[in-house]
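Q: Two folds, back to back.
A: First:
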Amino acid sequence: MRIGVIGGGIAGLATATLLARAGADVDLWEKNPQLGGRAGIIEDSGFTFDTGPSWYLMPEVFEHFFNLCGTSTDEQLDMITLDPGYRIFDTAGSGSIDVPGAIPTGGHSPAATTAPIHTGSTGGHRVPRERVLSLAEALEPGSSHTLDAYLDEASDTYRLALDSFLYTTFTGARGYSALASARVLSRLPRLPGLLAGSLGHRVERTVEHPLLRQMLGYPAVFLGTEPRRAPALYQLMSHLDLVDGVQYPLGGMHTIITAIAGLARAAGVRIHTGAEVVAVRADRPTSRGMRGSGRSGSVHEVLIRRSTPRSNPHTAPHSNPQRDPAGTGPALESVPLDFLVSAGDQHHFETRLLPGWARTVRPQAWGRTVPGGAAIHSPVTHGGTRERVASALGGRKDPGFGALTLMLGVRGRLPELTHHNLFFTRDWDRNFDQIFTERVLPQPASAYVCTPSVTDPSVAPADCENLFVLVPVPADEQLRAGRNDVEDYADGIVDAVGARIDAPDLRERTLVRHLLAPGDYARSYYAWSGTALGPANTLFQSAMFRGRTLSRRVGNLAYAGTYAAPGVGLPMALISAENVLKALLDDRSTHPLEPAALRKEVLRGETPCPGTLQPGAGRTGVQHP
């Protein structure tokens, strides 16, 4: 069975790895010269910058993926657990608080928290609840009781999500069986509030101190949205940092990409960088052919344009050269396929690569555009239930936020910073209104600053700091590095951070600077509207309401990554990859696969699998259960 995967980010690499380990013949095409997508890397003058994700959360998801690949996190990554987990700078600019990190289960909190806790496994560490409650009590006397209950609910909701709503394709009655499970039914009284209520309101009912509210509400940004627009069920995010704690792989987050790429190659995946899929050829549904072919079309080949020559001409068998129809570029390669996985930007894939009849998202859902290609979206003014329902009924997709990302190599140390640092504006709601409703660069701005050199000396030269600064901004691809207003805005961000950490000369001490803005995400990754993470995990873009794993219109097409369920983030990308394999295996359960499921003969055709293309079946060989 020959499968093609479009996109060399973590979702594409993970999908290709699992499919190859199950016996498929897999090619992966990445248009950029570097793998990783947003989780890229820049090396400059002794500094090593991660260009995207910087928080390592949900360690059990990584461990499970590595187990499926016959290995473990211990073998692939050198993990440490951070303590403090992160630092929040007071909204009034008068100080900061440290959010406790995890310690070994059954152990005692270390007397000092300046050194990270080394751990060789993803388990066995938890954040001592008493440390979190003591922090809350010091800020807001009497709040520890309500926060304790909140964290218990967060953990319960997280376990429910893992068991019932993440590892599933939501296909057929069995795919929705989780909705009628005993665990879900026992929580029916809570579900209306978790779904219709907002995370912001849930947090406001729990604590009153601004810093505590921001501590519980900021994870909404990890979902591509903000607390007033995120469903209350995403209180589960607080389980990740306030119960499990925060980890970091030495060498940087890109070591995860390196590890998975190595597993992909070991499984036999042919990885092609500098190779862009420029067209997907598919047959319309017909009334003749095999069972199911009347309901679905079928992909039969893709066209590839290479920006760099193949290092080994024998690594892509069965490809045929074709003339570039525009006559302006190198010859295209035609590659026949039995199955295709789109693991890149769905907007680009559906509007630029697929024929119109094969698209699963109506063009109107992506919003209208203005000159320059930026999408204009009807704002959800206050993020209340009525507005969110109206937006969903109108079929409009929410791209989430864009990001202004600065990677700075700084001379000298910055002792005020820890590994993860959060700088929030005093009027948080106003900040989010500027981003999502007014769609202007926020003034003043909240910012996240990662300083991995505090933990990992390998990412910066001696006596220097490595800073990753992310500022949420509107998802507007007209904002790009090199524009005077964007560069001036970035200067202001650096100055503002410097002022908060007693480093007013931060800009003058900067030795290396790289800037990414929404337009750069659009150019490099074809990110819709320049979205930083992908579509926001709002109510109607979560779980079964998010993009399907299997196309409704094309029988041998699947989606993985940020546009597919379960959503944004590295762990979600790994789960989406597993969901593609589950779809091919016609596994409609809601639990993760067992490693034994990845038998080499499964996708070779030696063991027939309902719901999959049989090898060599050709254009009409799509079978449906």
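A: Second:
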Amino acid sequence: MATFEIPGYEIYEQLGRGGMASVYRALHINLDREVAIKVIDTDKIADESFSERFVREARISARLSHPHILQIYDVNVYRSLNYISMELLHGGDLEDIIRGAMSQRTIYQVMAQMTAALDYAATKGYVHRDIKPSNIMMRGPDDFVLADFGIAKAADSSTQMTQAGLLVGTPSYMSPEQAEGIALDGRSDLYSLAVVAYEMLTKTVPYEADSAVSTAVKHLTEKIPRLPRRLAAYQPFLDKGMAKKPDERFQSGYEMYEAFCAVRNQFSDDDVLTPPRDHIPQRRTPAMGTQVEGLDGDRTAVWSDTGSPIGSRVSGGYQLTSSHGDDVISGIRNERRSGASRRRSGGGKWALAATVVALVAGGGGYLYWQQQGAAHSEALATVQDPQLEKLLGEANTALAANDLELARERLDSAAALAPGHAAVAQVERNWLDAREAQQQRGAEEVQRVTAQNLEVLLNDGRSLADSGDAAAAGEKFRTALRLDPDSADAQRGLDAAIKQLADSAEAAIAEGDFTPAKSALEAALALAPNADALNQRLADLPALAEAQAQQQHVSEGQALLTKQQYSAAAKAFAAADPNTPGARDGLAASADGLVKAARQDVQQHRYAEARERLKAVQQWLPDHPEAAALLADIPAQEQAWQQEQAAIAARKATANRRASEALQAVSSGDLGAARRGYDALMAEFPDMAVTRDVRKRLLDAYADAVRGEIEVKSWDTAQGLIAEGQVLAPELAVWQELKEEVEYLSANDRRRLGAY
């Protein structure tokens, strides 16, 4: 039983305890219900405003009523006690099972219930800021509850609910923007939940390092790890869930849940995607705010506005928000000792780094205790209680070994046994001085690790720049500037990357290739969002692309015009905006070419082709002065031509008939009739081919007839036929040849007859 009372509650047993807070199992008498009650005795703290802040923060959880958010029943103050009455759970937390044999069904239940809880919290305007397995508690095997909204913050609030400058998070799970110390919204919690999903799938966190500092920086700088082949189906889900930029992540829990379900269907719910390890080692990443070697790295990290770390115990189970000392609870910083010195370990070059990666470095021993041994001995000499002496002795021994956590536990027990005792106060001061020394060493470690990471980022940026990947190089330099805003090398590298991307965009614009131009400008703006010239150039791209497309139409039309392809040229010019240089003149030239071609068509009696050309002119230039007149004149010209063709056809038919009669006479040997037929043809159709054909056939017939007469020695008849042939075609040499032949043969014939 507890040694104190709270009206309305019966306190049973202590479930967890820290420097200022203890959690008890209790009975709410009026409701007859067991609850967990967290109690803080404000008599033990010097900050007079602590009670008000504690109640204000606790009420955040009380405002959230959701099946998968730990239920708060009561937040109140009784005398010097601040207390929170909350739902009592016996199932443990996700940390207890996450590295065991989790089936996909269990992973699905966690994702479904936590995305719903985060969406609900986001609608109420709160960001949890510390999503991790130890804050996901269990009512039962498939019933999970989000706990510890004590460090939550209103998403739209510019005022910290805790002391100004205090930031909270867990290095292994924090989002890049949380590590960077900038404003958060619900997408930061979704990033952390994606990290939890990665751990449920693989049994390890995505980023681990030898220090909390390096772990936090990895969330900012390193690529998302690749899953093993058997889990590759989940890679796109994690790539989006863990995107470095909030705008590239899931924008709501429901969207994240839907994406998870799409992949879930590729596996069986009973599948254990990654077998449990036979031996689950402790994580290497130490907690921010603790120097105990080997402690689990999954602890809440709390930074102060000075860049010095403040420890916080794990908030899983019912050890919800206890601390290493009496100075922090639920993210509230409170100095117990009036006038305690606060050394600033950040500023200027290292201010952001201190915000991102504040931690306490271990080692070195506790010099104050070694130097002040006489004072401790004198104080212990006044102790009369053996148990108290034993506790203080163990606390001092722990301080000498630099084990502040063990010293804190022994000191708390001593303070509970003998409140206000001088020896307890002396050891308390020793503990505070030891912690302050550790904080100073932590600040120095911040600078060292930040410098190391800065150099890595600069080297990576230079290598990427040399390889031509300006966008990736710029991201490295931009991240380096987050760690060191005064780094001239990082600024030069970033400026060079932006210029290279801008130059690349201009080169693409000059070539009329606007898709890579847009990509290059967007990449440059990702590095310099406020660059007015880049924003304006990106805004100008659609107009430039349209102008280039219009000019392309004109260029195409001009090329076709050169080839006298007037219809295609007119179509290209007409497709361009009339205000594009060359478009109107090109269209007019194309129309003139079409009209000219139409005139040629008319002259060659190709009236259909002429009509098509002129109609095209009227389509693109309805007011063309010649097209309409020529189109109107075509019917008359076509009709006259058709009539002319009909007359020619009739004349040709008559000529063919008469030629046929003459040729029949030739065939029958009636040269007289044939001659008369030819003479008639020659008189009426002297230019026709049939007349020429009849003439040729008739001449051949005369020549054949002469030869026939020569064979029968009918010299006079032969001479007569030769004379008729010469009348028809005096130019032919055949008549002279035949005449000479007749004269020769007839003379021989007369000599032969005279001899007899």
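Q: And?
A: The chain has a mean pLDDT of 80.
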